[in-house]
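S.,

As promised, the GLP run. Input:
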Amino acid sequence: MGCSLRLPPVPSLAPPAWLADRFEVFERPSRLAERVAELLEQELSAAPARPLGLATGRTMEPVYDALVQRLLALSPQRLKALQVGWRSFNLDEYIGLGPTDSGSFALEMSRQLVRPLGLEPGCVRLPDGLAEDPSAEASRYAAAVRAAGGIGLQLLGLGSNGHVGFNEPPCGPEAPCRSVELSAATRSHNAVAFAGNPSRVPAGAITLGLEQILGAERILLVVSGSAKAGILARLLREPPGPSLPASWLQGHPGLHLIVDRAALGG
Ligand code: GLP
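Predicted complex:
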C-alpha cells in the first residue's frame, strides 16, 4: 500500500474482517483531518505514477485546510516540486455549474487547494458542469482518467445515503463515469452550499463511477460526524449490494477507512 498505518487509537472497536488492520479511529475530527492530510502528503511526495482522486464536501474542508498547512510548511524547493508535479481528478461536478458559480465543486477546489497552494488550475481537473452534453462530457472525463493510467490514491467521503462520488443507490460495482440524477436526500444534505435551499441544488451531476473508483490503487474513505453514524454502521455490517454503493469498496484490497468517534456513534 505504501502508506504507513498506525493502530486504531480506540482499541476496543473491532473492525469487520474485510478491513483487517486498514482502519483508524480518532477521538477528535481535527486529528482525523491531520492524519488524512499526512497520508495525502506522503502520496504527493512519492511522486506517484498515477494522479490523485479528490473529493469535495464538508468532510474534506478540514482535511484540505490541514493539507495546505502541511504543504506550505515545506521548503520552497519541495513545495515547488509538488506544485509542478500536481495531477488530480475530482470525483464529480454539478451539471449547470461552472468554476465561478457558488456551490460548484470547481469553485470549492479553487478556494481550498488551487489558490492557497498556488497550483495551476489545469492540474486540478473536474468534469465540466457547463458542458452542453453532460453524457459526452462524462465519456471525455472517463477517457482522460484512463489516459492518465487511472487513479492512484482515491480520497472519498461517504454520502448520508451511502453514495460515493455521486453514485446514488441503487448502484452496481461496474457503474461507469456518467451523468446522474441526484436523490432528494442528497440535494437536501448538500443544500448548505446553496443557502440551505434543496431546490437550489442542481438536479444532476457528472460523476466518476464505481468502475473508476474501484480501479484506484488505494482508497481512503473518510467518515466524520454523528450524522454519518447510521450509514457507517450499515457499511460496517452489511454485505456488498446495490442499495449501499459504498459497500462495493469492501472488496477493494487497498481500502483504508478513517473515521472519528462521532461517526461510530460514540
Ligand atoms: C457529496 C459528494 C461526495 C462527498 C459526499 C459527502 O454529495 N458528491 O463526493 O464525499 O457527498 O459529503 P459531506 O462530506 O459534505 O458529508
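The two ends are 29 Å apart (CA to CA). Residues 1-5, 7-12 have pLDDT under 50 and may be disordered.

- D.
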